[in-house]
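Today's session is about reading a structure prediction critically. Students often jump straight to the picture, but the first step is always the sequence itself: look for stretches that repeat, for charged clusters, for runs of hydrophobic residues. Only then move on to the predicted structure, which in these notes is written as discrete structure tokens rather than atom positions. Here is the chain we will use throughout the hour.
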Amino acid sequence: MSQETPTVIKKYANRRLYHTGTSTYVTLEDLAEMVKAGEDFTVTDAKTGEDITRGVLGQIIFEQENKGQHLLPIAFLRQLIRYYGDSMQTFLPTYLETSLSAFSRNQDKLRDQMSRALKGDAFGAMEEQARRNMDMFTEAMRMFTPFPQAGSAAAGTRSAPRTAEGQAEEIEALREQLREMQRTIETIASERKQ
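Below is the predicted structure for this chain, in token form.
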């Protein structure tokens, strides 16, 4: 539940986080729960007043990944790193935010698809979803690329031909996404049985 003004969390030199709304110290796990509950907050350095929200949110993601709750596929992380310093870097945050918002809006449909997949062909449903995601990503990248990339054969060509190695990497990335989705489905199925 979003508030009009975000809660201020102050981070002290000793790395402790202070919730100014409740006048208590909190942990990164507490902040993660606040995010899940939809509570808006900013994190500021207690000494300088600098907004360090992005770094703290990144730290929460890093801690979740280290706990084995892998949400970000390795291929995605590598691609993300490649965009730092790239001319497309300015467009990527907006694209990712828009994509995640669309995903959030459609999560009920996705849950329904997952439910149906548990009753039938789970691999086929996941493969279809991965295909849709790739199509959406490709289309969005086309919208943000007004000029052909250097090295493409002609202005009318959508993209340069992919190498066998590039295709193999893409296939492996898709397989890893499918494995991640399968693990998620298995977790959901086991939770329903309990």
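Discussion point for the tutorial: Confidence is low (pLDDT under 50) at residues 150-159.
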